[in-house]
Each structure stands twice: as C-alpha cells, then as structure tokens.
Amino acid sequence: MKVLAAMSGGVDSAVAAARAVDAGHDVTGVHLALSAAPATLRHGARGCCTVEDANDARRTADVLGIPFYIWDLAERFRADVIEDFLDEYAAGRTPNPCLRCNEKIKFAAVLDRALALGFDAVVTGHHARLEGGRLRRSVDAGKDQSYVLAVLSARQLEHALFPLGDSTKEQVRAEAARRGLAVADKPDSHDICFIADGDTRGFLARKLGERAGPIVDAETGETIGQHDGSFGFTVGQRRGLNLRRPAPGGEPRYVLSIEPKSNTVVVGRGELLDTTEVRAARAVWTGCAVPQAPIACLVQLRAHGMVSPATVRASGEEVLAELGTPQRGVAAGQALVMYDGDTVLGSATITAA
Prior knowledge:
This protein is α/β, with parallel strands linked by helices.
C-alpha cells in the first residue's frame, strides 16, 4: 500500500513509520505544522509539534530513507482545536483537545488530503490495535489510546494503521534504539501543546476575559467565595477554590457544576459528585451496529481511568449509560467510550451526569 506516516517527532511515530517500511508499504513521512508561531508551543520534554519536533521527524525520515514533507495545518488547528477548546470551556464543559485533534486534524484534514493525493492509509504511532476494522485497546494498558481514537468513524478507521498496538512502550523504545533512531530516549509529550506555560486557567482568562462571579454552596445556597471566571473550573476540582471558610464538618468541597450563563460555580461535599447515570450525544458506533435494545458493556469516562460496567441504551445519536459502579467527577464535554472487553463499540460526547 501507499501510506502516509504522520511523524510527530517522537519515538512512537518514528517506530510506527519504520514498521510500515518493514511491512513493505510505500511510505512517505509528513510532519504537521500546527502553529503560525511555533515558538508559542511547548518545548523539550513537554513539547509537541514544535520546530524541534519537526527536525527530529526529518532526521528519522532520513534514517528510514523515506520522502518527508511538512504540512501547514495551523489555521485548521486553530479553528478546529483551539477555538473548540475555548468554546467548550465558555459553555461550562471540559473538552479533550487531544481527542479533537485526532478527529479533526489527523483523521479528517490529513486523511482527506492523503486520500486525495492517492495514498491508501495514514499510519500513526498511537497505542491501539485495529482488527477487522474494529478498534481495540493496546496491549500496553498504561499507554492505551483507544479512548482518544474512539471518536473516529468507520471510514477513518478503514484507512488507518496503528502498528504499535501489540507492543509496550518499553519495547518501542528498545526497537528505536536498535534502529539507531535519535528519538529512542526522547521523553513523551504532556499536557496541552498550545498552552506554552501550562497555565490553562491563565490561557482561558486571556482569551475569554475575566469576569467575577460567585462560588455557591450546593446545600445551603450561600455564596462562600468569588472567582474571576467560571471557565477556570472543572467538575470534580478540589484545589484552587479559595473559599472564604471551610465546610461546617471540615470536609473538603469540590466543584459540582458550572453555570456559564450566571457565571456561577457550585461546590459541595464529595459524595454529591457520585453519579450512576450519564447522558451523551453525537454517538459514533464502529464496533457494532447501533443497539436496538439495552446492552451490557464497559464504559470509560475520562482519558485516564473512570471505567465502570454499565447498561447502555441508544436512541438515535444519543446514549444513556446506567453505571454499575458510581463515578465521581464526570464532566460534560468528555467522551463516553463503550467497550466489549478491550474492543471499542462506540463513543459519544457527555452532555450530563
């Protein structure tokens, strides 16, 4: 096959491209330039898509002996990822920008362009498996990325290759070293690449503007604090609330809900976060047909952890998940991903819990 290898400059995408070459594919490497001002992105151990990463990707392509290009997708990234991130926080939701980047950039903008140019598939270094068009968890549970890929459509998965799903991260690094790839020991990227200093609240304040509002106790209705913008909080948050006084029993308070129209943050005892019912919308089903009756499965509610057995009911593009184990801190805007064992059945965007 003629395949396009998306090369971030990290060790995973480097080894994925190398394995595609070994498999006999006609491989071309491409690095995505996602910022009109690369210096504003994070650098070093916490970087992603910086000039340093582009150079690392080019060096890897040279070692592999494959053509290499840089595609400027900065405007598409701004519109589909950064602006979406801001809109979601302004609406009181908690988005996952990496999930949106996979959906809108790597498997929409890139894949569409790749197919138009005559490529058959896009290769990435994601830790996940594809079998018979169905997405499965990686054998490395700690690095599994099926959650952030579950939003992809059947068509997108049909034209995707994930060569690393059967390997652990340690095996990938060891292979990179054996191949003489300079990125073998390069640290993984972390956090949000377009927030250079890692200060998400500061970034949101600069972009959305500060606006003072009350922090209200859920049980008494009393105002017990002030904030500079409800966008700076997420459901389940405990730290940084700056409340005027502790709860009567001395127990910690958590963010229970965010009301953007009134600019109000509601806090209360941790037990009030427990939920056994989650609603979601914009469902995508790739591991099965849209269920016509309730199904028993596992659901994951955040990129890291929060897995629970559940009974799921589907109605059009909406999903209702009744959890077998109460979960705390379920936030609107995150993905609800449904699994049969380690196979993704589908995903939807959480609207209420």
